Amino acid sequence: MDSITQLIPLLTLIVLETILGIDNVIFISILAGKLPAEQRDRFRYWGLGLAMLMRLGLLTLLAWIMQLNTTLFTIGAIDISGKGLILLAGGLFLIYKSTAEIYHYTELGDEANAPNTTKNSFRDLLLQVLILDLVFSLDSIITAVGMVNQLWVMYTAIVVSVGIMLVAAKPISDFITQHPSFKILALCFLLIIGMSLVAEGLHVEIPKGYIYFAMAFAFLVDVIQMKTIPKAGRQ
């Protein structure tokens, strides 16, 4: 009976950590498309590997993470904490990055989005992943701490969820590359997530269920469009 009671929170946490990690996978997949084909797999492994190490590292700093909720200063009626600053910075970075990518893709044409080893170095793109890894990892760890008390459950859930993301990263990346409309949709997802991070940093809670439902519905509409437009073109 004890094993079952421990297995349920473990499986639940694995599912939640995987769902939270989808944002990370999408961001890494979009950046990987800027690199030559032979570097993309290595970039995805490095990006998700660093995400796992950051999550495991933050777990060892639980006391520090809990102190991040302490108010540092107040702007008007809004208390700003260390966690709030990290969420604000990460959200603004994600909004800027996704908006810039949408502009480059829609206004500057294919040449601006072609793999370019001079403009898009492996190191520079990996640095961008590290910035977002910190924000996503913080959100992931706070979720884990709020759900379970056993450290081994948290460690196991993080390792398993990152393993699942490693398996899913290449198919997601290939799918986004093969279907340009889904790249714009993925960037819009990141824009929404960036806005939700900023809102959370300002203590405006947007239920994540609403966000994921909107993303799932938009994805379904794009899938239906992808299936019907080619048929319409043949008629």
From TrEMBL:
The chain crosses the membrane at residues 6-33, 45-66, 72-96, 125-146, 152-172, 184-204, 210-229. GO terms for cellular component: membrane. It is a multi-pass membrane protein. Its main location: membrane. The keyword Membrane applies. It is found in: Membrane. It comes from the Bacteria. The keyword Cytoplasm does not apply. Keywords: Membrane, Transmembrane, Transmembrane helix. Belongs to the TerC family. This is TerC family protein. It comes from Fibrella rubiginis.
